[in-house]
Predict the structure.
Amino acid sequence: MADPTNPFAPYVPPKVWSPATPSGGAFASINRPVAGKTHEQELPVGKHPLQLYSLGTPNGQKVTIMLEELLAAGHAGAEYDAWLVKINEGAQFGSGFVEINPNSKIPALVDRSGDTPVRVFESGAILIYLAEKFGGAFLPKAIPARTETFNWLMWQMGSAPFVGGGFGHFYAYAPEKLEYPINRYAMETKRQLDVLDRLLAERRFVAGDEYTIADMAIWPWYGGLVLGELYDAAEFLNVHQYQQVRRWADEVRARPAVQRGRKVNRVRGKPDEQVLERHDASDLD
C-alpha cells in the first residue's frame, strides 16, 4: 500500500486487495470489482431484426463497419438499429444490457429475425456471426484462407487490450503519468505495429489478397493509431515508420462503408462525423 507520508515510497501490495477510494482516472466512476446490474433499465427495440447496442469506440466500429459493408454488398437483411450506450454514465450496467452481455462491455447485438432472439456479445463473435448469417460474407470459404482470417481476428482480440487498457489508459487516461507502465505498453504497442507492418509488406490485406472481417477488426485500433486518431499519440509512437500499415489503413479508410460505419454511435470528433444513433440508411447521408 502507498505511504501517505512519503509520495515517493514504492508501492507495497497489501495481503488482501481492496479498491482505492477514489481510484482516480477517466473511468473511475464506472470501474468496479464485481459484475451484474446496478439498476433496472430496459433496452429500446427498433424496427429492424438486428439491434445493436454500442458506442463508437474502436470495438464498436468493428461491428458498424461490418454491417455497412454487408449493406453495401447487397445484403438487405443487414439493416439495423444502432442504439447509443453511454458507458461513461454506466448504461452498460442496466438490467437489459446485462441480459445481453453479462460482461457489460460494448458492443452487443440481438438478432430478432427468428422465432427466438439470439444474443451475441464480444466484437469478434459478432463479426463471425454476421459473416456466417450472410452466407460467409467477408470470410473466405477455403479452409487455409478462412483459418488465416481467424488467426488475425484472434490476434486482434488478444493484442488490442495491451493497446487500449494498457498504453491508452496509462498514456491518456490515468490520473498521473507514470514512466514504467507507459514505457512498458508503448514498447508492446510498437511491437504489435511492427508485426502488422512486416505482414502487410507481403500482402494487400491482413489475411491475404481479400478484404475480410480481420481487416474490419484490426483497422479501428491499429489503423486509428497510424492515422493519428487514437490517444493523440501518433508522434509519441513515431507511427510514420510503419509505412505498410499506413498504406493499408488509407486503403481501408477509403471504403465508403468504412466511412459510414465509423460514424455510427460516435460521440467524439467532428460534428459531421457523429451519428449518435442509426435507425435508417438515411441517417448517415
Remarks:
- The two ends are 54 Å apart (CA to CA).
- The chain has a mean pLDDT of 95.
